[in-house]
C-alpha cells in the first residue's frame, strides 16, 4: 500500500470519527506509541486514564483530529494477564490495590500518604516526615538510626 493510500485511509477514518480496534506495535515513551490497524501503522497517545500498554496489546482508538495523533481510550489486559491486572478497586470497601515488583510514586514537590491523623510526607528538599500517635520501628536484625545529629525529645 502506498503512503498516499495509507494517508487517504487515515483521513477517511478521522472523518468518520468512529472508534476502532487496533494493536500496539511499539511503545515510544512519554505516553506515545505506534499502533497498527488494517490501514497501516500510525502514531497515537494514551488517554490519561489508560494504564501503560505493551506491544501486541489490543486497544480501542479514537481517530485524531487533523494533525493530531489518534487517542487510545481503552485497552484489553495483556495476553496471559486477564484478571491479574496490577491495579484493582473494590467499591464496596473503597479499597484501591496496586501490585507490582516495584511501585514508584513520583511527586514534583511532595508525596503524601495519609490515613486519619497519621501521615508520611517526602518533600523535594529531601525532608521525610512521619507523624502519628504511635510509631513503631522494629527489625529482626539491626535497626540503625543515623544522622548529622540525633535528638530525642
Essential attributes:
153 residues, mainly beta, OB fold (Dihydrolipoamide Acetyltransferase, E2P), 3-stranded antiparallel beta sheet, 1 helix
Helix/strand/pairing class, anyone?
mainly beta
Distinct helical segment count: 1
Shape descriptor: elongated
CATH architecture descriptor text of the domain at 3-75:
Beta Barrel
The value of Rg in angstroms is 23 Å
How far from one another are the termini? 75 Å
Record the strand order, biggest sheet.
1-2-3-5-4
**Residues in β-strands, percent:** 35-45%
Low-confidence stretches: none
Total E-strand runs: 10
**CATH level 1 name of the domain at 3-75:** Mainly Beta
What is the overall pLDDT average?
82
The CATH H-level superfamily of the domain at 3-75 is: Nucleic acid-binding proteins
What CATH calls the topology of the domain at 3-75 is OB fold (Dihydrolipoamide Acetyltransferase, E2P)
Order of helices and strands: HEEEEEEEEEE
Question: Can you describe this structure?
Answer:
The protein has about 150 residues and is mainly beta. It contains one helix and ten strands, in the order αββββββββββ. The strands form three sheets. The protein has a five-stranded mixed β-barrel with strand order 1-2-3-5-4. It has a three-stranded antiparallel β-sheet with strand order 8-9-10, with no helix packed on it. The chain is elongated and about 70 Å long. The mean pLDDT is about 80.
Draw up the topology in text.
Blueprint: H1 3-16, E1 20-29, E2 32-37, E3 40-46, E4 58-62, E5 70-75, E6 87-90, E7 95-98, E8 110-115, E9 118-123, E10 128-131
Parallel strand pairs: 3-5
Antiparallel strand pairs: 1-2, 1-4, 2-3, 4-5, 6-7, 8-9, 9-10
Amino acid at each position: 500500500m502506498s503512503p498516499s493510500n495509507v494517508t487517504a485511509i487515515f483521513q477517511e477514518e478521522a472523518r468518520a470519527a468512529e472508534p476502532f480496534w487496533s494493536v500496539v506495535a511499539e511503545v515510544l515513551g512519554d505516553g506515545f506509541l505506534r499502533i497498527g490497524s488494517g490501514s497501516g501503522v500510525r502514531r497515537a497517545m494514551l488517554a490519561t486514564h489508560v494504564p501503560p500498554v505493551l506491544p501486541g496489546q489490543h486497544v480501542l482508538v479514537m481517530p485524531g483530529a487533523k494533525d493530531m495523533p489518534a487517542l487510545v481510550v481503552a485497552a484489553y489486559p495483556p495476553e496471559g494477564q486477564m484478571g491479574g491486572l496490577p491495579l484493582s478497586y473494590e467499591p464496596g470497601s473503597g479499597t484501591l490495590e496496586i501490585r507490582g515488583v516495584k511501585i514508584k510514586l513520583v511527586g514534583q514537590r511532595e508525596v503524601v500518604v495519609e490515613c486519619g491523623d497519621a501521615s508520611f510526607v517526602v518533600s523535594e528538599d529531601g525532608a521525610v516526615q512521619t507523624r502519628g500517635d504511635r510509631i513503631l520501628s522494629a527489625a529482626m536484625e539491626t535497626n540503625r538510626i543515623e544522622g548529622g545529629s540525633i535528638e530525642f525529645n
